[in-house]
Each structure stands twice: as structure tokens, then as C-alpha cells.
Design goal:
4-stranded antiparallel sheet, alpha+beta, 28 strands, single chain, about 400 residues
Length: about 400
């Protein structure tokens, strides 16, 4: 019996020492290696690159080439694909090589929808190695979204009127779901239970033929099964939109509207329409001259859902608007022709990043003051921005000489 009473404390002491050693090992270099850095990834549409901005310092950390195989892809097109490629570029007015981007939750991989190349690809950021490529149906790959768990990359196949759900591990097609005409944005609800796809209709047709543009709708599907839940029909194309955490309200910009709407998702109706001021330049433009039918294209919401960040694309400004009154707190005006074409809330929750596409710059606006706090040079024709995290190895691999 005495020997047993001695062994138990000894065993407990050994266990305690092992726990301490394990904790110390976890606090060493291995733990530091997995620390991730908050960044804003900026897709440079015409340049074919992505720029990464440190959201704490506003430093451009460098870029990554997302079309290293550009000529190879063009050479591999069959005659029908080549005609489609040229038609898409002509309608767009330029060649968009990068449409949308997303970074894996572990900060190692970037997924890209490559607009005019009509494909989705994945790259290991640190090694710059292409992991997979999938040709999307039709002639254009548009907006995309990464599932909250990082296992699915959802891409709009514009001319096929569907969204394609891709397995991020393999690049294989999981499923598709039907959308309206010319599907555009894919947005997960804040709780991750619903996936919304917004369609814009045939943008090459003039406003006079709006009725012939096809179905302009928001299609809601179950985010896990992709089962159709509901379709919301609109008179005009749905541009960028944001959704509240309670899944009750959507704020959306619509084709030709110099402003935005508040939409009740339960009732299926517009509850308020807010018209924003025209600039002198914007007022002089004809609706058919708006870029891809959009007067205003860029909407984001801050972390506590108290403010909206609205890009006045044809008007060269961005406004911070307070909820629930939808009153304007302040407006930052840009040089004529700057083309603010997208907005995104920073991972810090209180900065709004604005793409100035024709200036090759990003403007950072503080939601709290409605003032610009930084202006950052990036690559050619920035548009889509997405919050992300990067590993130290990924950051070290970036090219700082090329925004």
C-alpha cells in the first residue's frame, strides 16, 4: 500500500511536467509560423494581378501574377471560344483578366475567377504554383464567393445563366444552380446559411429595350445543399448588395439608379429608394453611357451594421450613409473620371476600401468620420476587393516592385 501512495503523486508530477513541456513547445517557433496577417486583396482586372494591402499600416505588400498562363490559354481556345473571348472584351470595353478573388482561411491559397478567360483557378501563394484550373461554362467567369469553411468556390457563369460550385481542394465541379440572366454577384448571408446570386440582365442592350434584357433577379439557395429557396424579381439589374445579419433586409444598387434601395426580404418588396446627388459629370451622361448600365457600383456595410459605404461610380465620390435613417454622414469627392467601382469593409470593421479603377488606386475611408485616411497605389484597373489573411511565407513571396 505505501508503494501505491508514492506512485500516484509521482505520476501526477510527470503528467504536469509533460503538460508544461507541451505548452512551451506550442509557444515556440511553430506557433509563430501559423500566425496570419490581415490584408485586403485587390483584384486588378486589366493588369491580371492581385495586390495585398496591410490593413493595419495601409502598406501595399506587393502583388501576385494571376495570369502567368495567359498566352497559353488564348492559344488553346477553339474558334468558338476565341470568338466569344473577343465579343466579351468588346462588350466590356476592355479585357478583364481578373474578375473576383478569395483567399483560403489558412492564408495559403488564392482562388480566382478570370473573367474573359472564362475559368476559375487556384494558386499556392507562396510558391506561385497553379493548383488547378476549371473552365467555366460559356464565355465569361464573373463574381465569385468562397464558402465560410473555405471548401467551395462559387462562380457566376455569365452567359450560361448559372452559378458553378467548385470544390476548392480539387477544382472539380460539385454542382450548379440556375440564376437569372447574366448572373453577377454571389453573396453568402452573414450567418452563412443562404447564398444569394444577383443577375444584371443583358447589359449590351440599351435602356430603351430594358424589357428584353432577361430575368433580373436575386436567387436565394440553401448554402449547404444549393436547394432553391426563393427568387426575387426586379425591374432593373441588381448591382452590388449587402445583407443584414437577421436575413431580413437587403440594400442594393440597381442598374441606372443614382442611389440604392432598401429591400424587405420577407415581404419581397422595395421599402425605400434613396436617390443620391448627381455630380456635374454624372448628370451630363446618358444612361446608355453608364459603365455596364451601373450608375453606382460599390456597396459595403460596417461591422455593427450601422453604416453603409456607397460608391457613386459615375459621380466620382463615395458616401457614408447611416442606418436606419439612411442619411448621409459625409461624402469624399474624387478627381473627375476616377471611377470608384467597388467598396469593401476592412477586416478591422471600421474602414471602407474603395477601388478607383481609372486611377489604379485604393482610397480608404473611415466609417466613423466619413473621411479618407489613406490613398494606395495598386495595379492596373483595381475593382474587386476581398478581406483576407496571409501566412508569413505568403507575404514574403509577394513582389513589392509591382503593385
Amino acid at each position: 500500500m505505501p508503494s501505491l501512495s508514492l506512485r500516484r503523486p509521482t505520476a501526477l508530477l510527470v503528467c504536469a511536467l509533460l503538460a508544461v513541456v507541451t505548452a512551451l513547445a506550442g509557444a515556440g517557433p511553430r506557433a509563430e509560423a501559423v500566425q496570419l496577417r490581415d490584408v485586403m486583396a485587390v483584384g486588378n482586372g486589366q493588369g491580371g494581378t492581385v495586390s495585398f494591402i496591410d490593413t493595419a499600416t495601409y502598406e501595399n505588400l506587393g502583388s501576385l501574377n494571376l495570369v502567368p498562363d495567359l498566352q497559353e490559354r488564348i492559344n488553346a481556345m477553339n474558334p468558338v471560344e476565341r470568338v466569344g473571348y473577343e465579343v466579351v472584351n468588346n462588350i466590356q470595353g476592355y479585357r478583364k483578366l481578373v474578375d473576383d478573388i478569395a483567399v483560403s482561411p489558412d492564408g495559403t491559397t488564392i482562388y480566382v475567377s478570370r473573367g474573359a478567360l472564362s475559368d476559375a483557378v487556384a494558386f499556392d501563394i507562396a510558391s506561385k504554383r497553379m493548383l488547378w484550373r476549371r473552365k467555366t461554362e460559356g464565355f465569361k467567369a464573373d463574381h465569385a464567393a468562397l464558402s465560410p469553411d473555405g471548401t467551395r468556390f462559387v462562380v457566376s457563369a455569365t452567359t450560361a445563366s448559372k452559378s458553378e460550385v467548385i470544390d476548392t481542394a480539387t477544382g472539380r465541379l460539385v454542382t450548379t444552380f440556375a440564376t437569372g440572366t447574366y448572373p453577377h454577384a454571389n453573396d453568402y448571408s452573414p450567418d452563412g446559411t443562404i447564398l444569394y446570386n444577383s443577375s444584371i440582365g443583358i447589359t449590351s442592350l440599351p435602356k430603351l429595350l430594358n424589357g428584353l434584357k432577361g430575368s433580373r433577379s436575386v436567387t436565394a439557395v440553401d448554402a449547404n445543399t444549393y436547394r432553391h429557396l426563393r427568387t426575387y424579381e426586379f425591374e432593373y439589374g441588381i448591382r452590388p448588395a449587402v445583407f443584414t445579419r437577421d436575413n431580413k433586409t437587403m440594400y442594393a444598387q440597381l442598374s441606372y439608379l443614382n442611389g440604392f434601395v432598401e429591400y424587405d426580404l420577407a415581404a419581397g418588396k422595395i421599402t425605400r429608394t434613396v436617390e443620391m446627388p448627381f455630380s456635374e459629370r454624372g448628370a451630363a451622361m446618358k444612361p446608355d453611357d453608364y459603365p455596364q448600365n451601373s450608375a453606382h457600383h460599390g456597396m459595403a456595410m460596417n461591422a455593427d451594421e450601422s453604416k453603409l459605404c456607397m460608391a457613386g461610380t459615375i459621380d466620382d465620390y463615395v458616401s457614408i450613409v447611416s442606418r436606419p435613417g439612411l442619411t448621409t454622414d459625409g461624402t469624399v469627392h474624387y478627381e473627375p473620371g476616377a471611377l470608384p467601382y467597388w467598396t469593401q469593409t476592412s477586416p478591422n470593421g471600421h474602414d471602407c476600401y474603395v477601388s478607383l479603377s481609372e486611377k489604379n488606386q485604393i482610397s480608404v475611408i473611415d466609417y466613423r468620420t466619413a473621411r479618407e485616411v489613406a490613398r494606395i497605389d495598386v495595379g492596373h484597373y483595381p475593382q474587386r476587393e476581398r478581406g483576407a489573411k496571409l501566412t508569413a511565407e505568403a507575404v514574403a513571396s509577394l513582389d513589392p516592385s509591382n503593385g
